[in-house]
Records
---
Amino acid sequence: MALIVHKYGGTSMGSVERIANVAKRVAKWMRAGHQVVVVPSAMSGETNRLLGLAKEINPNPSPRELDQIASTGEQVSSGLLALALMKEGIDAVSYAGWQVAVNTDSSFTKARIKSIDSKKILNDLNAGRAVVVTGFQGVDPEGNITTLGRGGSDTSAVAMAAALKADECLIYTDVDGVYTTDPRVCEDARRLDKITFEEMLEMASLGSKVLQIRSVEFAGKYKVKTRVLSSLTDPLMPLDQEMKSGTLITFEEDSTMEAAVISGIAFARDEAKITVLGVPDRPGIAYQILGPIADANIDVDIIIQNQSVEGKTDFTFTVPRADYQKALDILKGTVQAHIEAKEISGDPKVSKVSVVGVGMRSHVGIASKMFRTLSEEGINILMISTSEIKISVVIDEKYMELAVRALHKAFELDQK
């Protein structure tokens, strides 16, 4: 008998029929003798509907009240799932995040989990019940309801698995696992049987939307065995078949992983590049440029500073495209005159493409192969960034899909 945490996304909970299917699947695991905790998301589209109502009433809503409103979506889906389980003959109970409790800080709309009191859940599990706990939410030290940000149910589920010392955390979604790249961009994309937490963390941070990045961080930190699999399969499929489906995210680099130098190609479409030209090359200049950007809550990704020529240098960095104009306005409005920069230019139409793989640690020539492949396709590289297990390039957005397909083929990711 194992203790398993199931997480179901909004699509999986999107209708009464799909909730009934989730109940059938959970009941199957329970009847096989396993203890199951289920973390459901709100029904598909419900959170957007609730937040839309809030902003219709008040265009500048209080973050605390937004959390109060948004958290109700998960409460509804949890209650409905508990009822569906009871209909299947399973003793079930549902809890909101504050009832368990999932303790968080007070950062409304993007709270972080601090601890989970697992006593109540363990008592229910030992009494033979299925326990349904709302994803995406918790409670702060003052008793306020908080939410964890978009995709937060993934983080809730992994944190729950860590607190309960679960044998595995199963993330059920509308895709059947983690792919070598997005199948919509490259039809030769292949589902991976296994990927390491490090690789998954890079893939998530570089634009892969399969899992929320904080959930991967949590899983790696607490060594929670996590599997991504499809909720759209037959809920009554044989259990041994289901237990081996999808993609296992593991903290062990086994011998077969050594053979695969690159595990995947990640990309982010909506990037923008900003260059501050003719900057005085003196200590603290990077902070003077990026400090005001950070103060405006704009994420900076790749940063390059050119070699100094006659005491002047150029400073280039990327930001999300949605923040491009805001970042330019800050730089031109206050920073440029203060640091005596010659000019500020930008390009809002760039994309980032990355190759990711733990095999890079023990193989040479990955960068040269990547650059040669892009060169042969006539794709100019604007910026380069590397880490131990990834190489990222910034290119013109019109070449992004071509770059992904060419690199996928060059690194033979279509081969098993």
---
Amino acid sequence: MLDTPAPKGNEPLDYPDPMLAHFLSALDVRIKSLDFEIDERGQPILDEVRDRLANFPIIGSEHSTWNEAYRLERLLALIEPPSRLFAELTRRTQEAIEEGVPTAVRLKETLEDAKRTLVDTAQPPKLRGDAVAAARLLLLDALEEIHWSAQRKFYGRPLQKAATSRTINVGILTFFLFLAPYLYIYFYHVLPEKNDGPFLPFSWFPAYTALTAGLFGAFFSRLMSLQSSGNNLTLGVLKDARNWSSILSRGVVGMCGALIVFFFLQSKLLGGTLFPDFAELGLAITKWPHATANGQPVDGFHWLLILPNQQLALLVVWSFLAGFSERLVPNVLASTEKTLSDAINKTK
């Protein structure tokens, strides 16, 4: 929140937000440039902006303060001299394009139409006398879109940060859930006195691997979406993304998708080298460096490497993709439905 006292009279502007201070200083210069070209009809608006800027208020929060600054800029657009109006419209449209304003394409198309309908062909190009009002409305439209986009980013950034932070926290927990059996296996082999007997607790290992890989894939997908597309998401989506219910529901969907793929793979309705053979699921245990001819490790030291074998790795990949991609399971179901329908039709 901005809590600096409002400057009075000719006191210098001193705000915690350097971007706001720069924005207001730019407005101050533009006001002085308008003194030479403004007519008597625009003088009241110019006086209002000048007075408001000289006594610029701190209005409770940064959001409302920036809103007031943007309002002053839009007021100046109402009295922009006709000789500078089209150039300002062109500059603002280009600014919208460079800033990635969502409606920049529409603004650019509108500017191109204005060049054909509102501007004389003389060099340099200038507005026709009867086109000033229309051009001013276009300038206001461009400013409103730029201001909305800036405010949306400013307001949405904390929402995006909260959603990302919560997703990362849950994703880290899920990651350790996925690794827990492997950590236990390594711990089991580190302690020789416990290194006997079968891994009876791991009878559920394939299903557990599928569920946790799908859960991790779902949170990883959500995190990627927030990082790559956060600026393009609506405020409603960002608010929903930071809710624990939304985060957990995305994880549940990922687990359900992974479970469906797990049973599809086990049913062998899908076959080929890209799909795991459940009868061969297991771990590949190797030593490095390899033992010498007398069966002893080199220099009496070796690493014991415990890795998923190819079939287990394939199960992890498919389960992760089932949680990561929201389209994988529907595509698998549609493909299977088509295969079954073709098979039924052949038997008729």
---
Amino acid sequence: MSKKTDLTTHFHTRINLPAETRAAMGMILNERLADYLDLERQAKQAHWNIRGARFQQLHELFDATAALAVGWSDELAERAGQLGVPAEGTLPVIAERSRLPKAPLVVDHADEWVRVVSDALACCANAARANIEEAADADDAITADLLTRITSETDKQLWFVESHLEPEPT
């Protein structure tokens, strides 16, 4: 379980949300930050180690996924800061908090890398999607909107990545 940010470490802000709400949203944002930073690393691992006939297209797709994850991470961290909560993106914190399945260092087939990156994208999107209502219920429409936009963009990137796999039976 994740450690909660110490309320005494909050930065001053004039945002008129209650301190408890800002702390709760900050924790959500930091949890998603860990996931998206892990996604970036997993996409880069796939980018560096992809081999085979589809090398070029997957190499570029995984690099684009990593770049998007960096942008999403930055937005999550900045929203935490806006709420007066420190962004916690160090490697030990990411390792502790990330909900993503552990990525392999090497795989045998390109489709395995596609599955790894797809699984990571899906995990990020689904976790963020689950937090949208929580943010809305806390009357933090800005965080809810941010999570909604990031989830939408992550869903789109997931579609791009998983479209490289043969359809699975429904």
